[in-house]
């Protein structure tokens, strides 16, 4: 369930950063501090951007930052970070980014339910905009609960 | 049985999400009998799929494999619906 992964302590709102790499680090640092992923995971995400381009900017303003389980994931996890100012990731169609969802999968199935709930959220512009403009975690959690059925 | 394979670099995130949307579109159009699955790029050529779907960034990896649908925006249902309908009509599947 989405709400089991996106709990209060993995949500950070209106974060400031200078460039896309710093933005990605904000998303991963929280999970690294909790031991859910290793430092190597952040590097793996950067590698992926380098090799594949900014495909992780999956929709207008949204980045789904992830790499593979073997890149350093200790347990299934997700974090949600909103940025104070939009940052460009080099994706002409979908820049600038204001919402970063970082996730770590441990195999190729356990995350699918949460991911499909996340997908429903991504397709709702209103709720995405509400999350991006939220200043309180409670508001964000309310929206997440809505999609965790 | 016709087969659609959705690919992405990791084979665990975006490809699954697009697979979900394709199934929704096929349902809307009332099309049955098409298998949809997802994988990473390395498993794509051995899959025996008839149609490959992915985002624009992997265009060069998918095109040599067969018929491809490339998406600019993976959460845009309209783009997917239009491109999928066009492809299926072209193949006489609708």
UniProtKB/TrEMBL annotation, chain A:
Q: Where in the cell is it found?
A: Cytoplasm
One Pfam family named in its UniProt record: PTS_EIIA_2
Q: Which UniProt keywords apply?
A: Cytoplasm, Kinase, Phosphoprotein, Phosphotransferase system, Sugar transport, Transferase, Transport
Which SUPFAM superfamilies does the protein's record reference? Phoshotransferase/anion transport protein
Grouped into one coarse class, the protein's main location is cytoplasm
Q: Which domain of life is it from?
A: Bacteria
Q: Name one GO cellular component term.
A: cytoplasm
| Transport found in the keyword field | yes
Domain spans labelled PTS EIIA type-2: 4-147
What is a single molecular function from GO for this protein? kinase activity
Please give the biological process terms from Gene Ontology that the record holds: phosphoenolpyruvate-dependent sugar phosphotransferase system
The protein's job, in short, is: The phosphoenolpyruvate-dependent sugar phosphotransferase system (sugar PTS), a major carbohydrate active transport system, catalyzes the phosphorylation of incoming sugar substrates concomitantly with their translocation across the cell membrane. The enzyme II UlaABC PTS system is involved in ascorbate transport.
* Protein name as it appears in the record: Ascorbate-specific PTS system EIIA component
The species this protein belongs to is Acidilutibacter cellobiosedens
TrEMBL record, chain B:
Residues covered by the PTS EIIB type-2 domain? 2-92
Q: Which GO terms describe its biological process?
A: phosphoenolpyruvate-dependent sugar phosphotransferase system
Q: Which organism is this entry from?
A: Acidilutibacter cellobiosedens
Task: Report the InterPro entries cross-referenced here.
Answer: PTS_EIIB-like_sf (IPR036095), PTS_EIIB_2 (IPR013011), PTS_EIIB_2/3 (IPR003501)
Q: What is this protein called?
A: PTS sugar transporter subunit IIB
Q: Which PROSITE patterns match?
A: PTS_EIIB_TYPE_2
Q: Which UniProt keywords apply?
A: Sugar transport, Transferase, Transport
Keyword Disulfide bond applies: no
Highest taxon of source: Bacteria
Q: Please list the GO terms describing molecular function.
A: protein-N(PI)-phosphohistidine-sugar phosphotransferase activity
């Amino acid at each position: 369930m989405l709400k089991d992964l996106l709990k209060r302590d993995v949500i950070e709102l209106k974060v400031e950063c200078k460039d896309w790499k710093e933005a990605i680090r904000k998303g991963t640092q929280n999970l690294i501090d909790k031991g859910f992923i290793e430092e190597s995971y952040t590097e793996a995400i950067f590698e992926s951007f380098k090799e594949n381009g900014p495909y992780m900017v999956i929709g207008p303003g949204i980045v789904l930052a992830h790499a593979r389980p073997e890149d350093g994931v200790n347990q299934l996890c997700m974090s949600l970070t909103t940025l104070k100012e939009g940052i460009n990731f080099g994706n002409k169609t979908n820049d600038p980014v204001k919402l970063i969802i970082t996730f770590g999968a441990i195999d190729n199935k356990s995350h699918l339910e949460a991911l499909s709930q996340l997908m429903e959220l991504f397709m709702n512009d209103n709720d995405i905009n509400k999350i991006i403009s939220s200043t309180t975690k409670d508001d964000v959690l309310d929206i997440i609960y809505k999609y965790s059925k | 049985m016709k087969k659609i394979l959705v690919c992405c670099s990791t084979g665990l995130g975006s490809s699954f999400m697009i697979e979900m949307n394709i199934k929704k579109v096929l349902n809307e159009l009332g099309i049955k009998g098409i298998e949809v699955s997802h994988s990473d790029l390395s498993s794509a050529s051995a899959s025996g799929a008839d149609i490959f779907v992915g985002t624009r960034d992997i265009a060069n990896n998918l095109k040599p494999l067969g018929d491809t649908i490339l998406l600019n925006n993976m959460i845009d249902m309209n783009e997917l619906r239009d491109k999928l309908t066009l492809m299926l009509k072209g193949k006489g599947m609708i």
